[in-house]
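To: structure desk
From: M.T.
Subject: fold request, one chain
Message: Could you run this one when you get a chance? Sequence is below, nothing fancy, just the single chain.
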Amino acid sequence: MTTLSLARGRRPSLPVTVAATALAWLVAWLAEAPLADWASYELLGLERGSHLGDAVDFFLMDVPKVLLLLLGIVTVVTLVRSFFPPERVRAALAGRGTLAGSVAAAAFGIVTPFCSCSAVPLFIGFVEAGIPLGITFAFLISSPMVNEVALVLLWGLFGAQIALVYVAAGLVVAITGGLVIGALRLERYVEPYVWELQGAGGTVAEVRLTWADRVTDAWRYTIELVRRITPYLLIGIGLGALIHGYAPTDLVAAIGGRSNPFAVPIVVLIALPLYSNAAGTIPIVQALLGKGMPLGTTLAFMMAITAISLPEFIILRRVVRWQLIAVFATVVTIGILCIGYLFNALIA
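Reply: Done. Structure tokens follow.
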């Protein structure tokens, strides 16, 4: 076999593959907006500024934009997160005081990929590690509400200021919720079988991964994540497109505008029966902000969908009693309402 044929059969090195992928991502990112405009107004012949034209352009622009953000930035975040496996997170939180533990748990929640469907195994795993109840709930509040997907989408669509405001608000709610639940000493409302598991988990050996392993695992996770949440994204972008193109600004202002003192609790009540991961809410948030809804009211709506959803309460009922769930829901709801009103007052 010749040297040329060997070279042809050799796979590209990891740095070359990563560089080529990054270049392709950048080209796609720069091209998606002009292509959306061309498809909407030239290919489909829709009128610029019309309800249908604006809605279709919003949809065609946001679908590739959101998917590119997910594929690009979530891969990087997941690569970083590979250095913080669940076993290390539990070990880092175990043995801390309530305040330090709640702050650490809320911070860890930002970079962990857990949603409400993971609430039960997470809860049991934390109890097994001897982590106090308040710290556990600080993590359970933070992880679905302030996750890496929502952070990178907000950063990409609205800039660093709104993304950091979202993170700060979510951390405040999570830390406060953890401290309150810890102070109330509600351990009696945890199902007895959960306490019996404490100390039964043993230790898990940490697996050492190469950079190639980490990059491969990060890419596989990102592809699986995109596959799972694409239906939510399409629904969210579709609703956002309808709001952007058809919802009268006056109606949005009447329901969620600054002139309505009950706007924040109204949007929280609307969000309660809904369920979506944070990524699915971003296009709706984008459209509502575009129609003039204040940032605080919009953040309250987004946080309520992800942090106080009825499906999560039903899942948590397997490990805790309704009394604890009621306290959890009340504390988080009050926190979200305060965040909504505070940011409406601070940000004009």
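Reply (cont.): Confidence is low (pLDDT under 50) at residues 1-7, 200-205. Let me know if you need anything else for the meeting.
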